[in-house]
Amino acid sequence: MNLNRLTVNHNRPARPRGAVLRRALGLLAVSLIAGSTGAQAFPAMNMPVGVTVLSHDIYRIHMEVLWVCVAIAIAVFGVMITALIRFRHSKGAIPDTQMTHSTAAEVIWTIIPVVILVAMAIPATRTMLKIDDTRGAGLTIRVTGYQWKWQYTYLGQAAGISFFSTLSQSSNFARQLDSGIDPRTVPHYLLSVDHPLVIPSGVKVRLLITSADVIHAWWVPAFGVKRSAIPGFVNELWVKVLPGHEGVYRGQCAALCGRDHGFMPIVVDVKTPADFAKWVAAQKAALKQASTAPAPVPAAAAPNDAPVARTGAVPLAAPLARRPLTAQVLD
Ligand SMILES: [Cu+2]
Known about the structure:
By secondary structure, this protein is α+β, with helices and mostly antiparallel strands. Among the domains are: about 50-85 and about 110-135, no CATH class; about 140-290, Cupredoxins -  blue copper proteins (Immunoglobulin-like), CATH 2.60.40.420. The chain has helices at about 15-45, 55-85, 105-130, 170-175, 275-290, and strands at about 140-145, 150-155, 160-165, 195-200, 205-210, 215-220, 225-230, 235-240, 245-255, 265-270. It starts with 16 loop residues before the first helix and ends in a 39-residue tail after the last helix. Copper (II) ion binds near residues 145 and 216.
């Protein structure tokens, strides 16, 4: 390598002041445009707020920490840029080669970060303790992961209601090789199920999460929670959807659990307490009817699952809603 090519040409003519100013103004204009565009796009780029008590708490901490980071960035880069401009070589700055140690500086740059970290850790710890506090739940549901579906078993007042939640027929047909169905035409492709989990809003719902085969993970982003479903273990989780946020929320298994890992979505139908009570009553009535009559019980409603033409795709197995438990992990 020709080292001479890397040497700095000190004899280069100085750039005229006007050109430097124009360039600086141009850069400022570009950064202002980018800044305003960024401000508009910020809510879309930022972490979603979610719909639960915990997701709101997590979002609040996220924003607090973000603003602390912004303040640190402004302070650090402000000092750096000021030093670079004010004490540059061309202004005749002479490096201080005498100062090799300063106890005062070291104490300051140790104490300030410690104070910042402790200040951020206090609300974070408080929220983490809150996430793990499942006491005082108004409803408890056991969630069991299977290859590749979920089972929801209601305990307490809604005891007796238990069903499997599997990939919707529309997605299942479309996903088959050579199905001839364009997945883009399937509503909520791979994110819809036959029987969604139904919970009430405004009620603390405790979920007991486990698995009957391999490790899965129950994850609904809008709820701000995720828990591993591990065979032989029961992980607890709680969800309290804020009133006014009733609707359908979707998630996925978040642990690579085998061949069809991508085909066991999670759908939660959040109803008002009154509608939830009606749903429970309807389910219990159906159970009672099933216990007295041999005819099969109509399964729970399957919202967002438009019927599709069967085009030679692999048919689904028999309805799973009444399938008996294959593993009694908790009993
Ligand atoms: Cu899974």
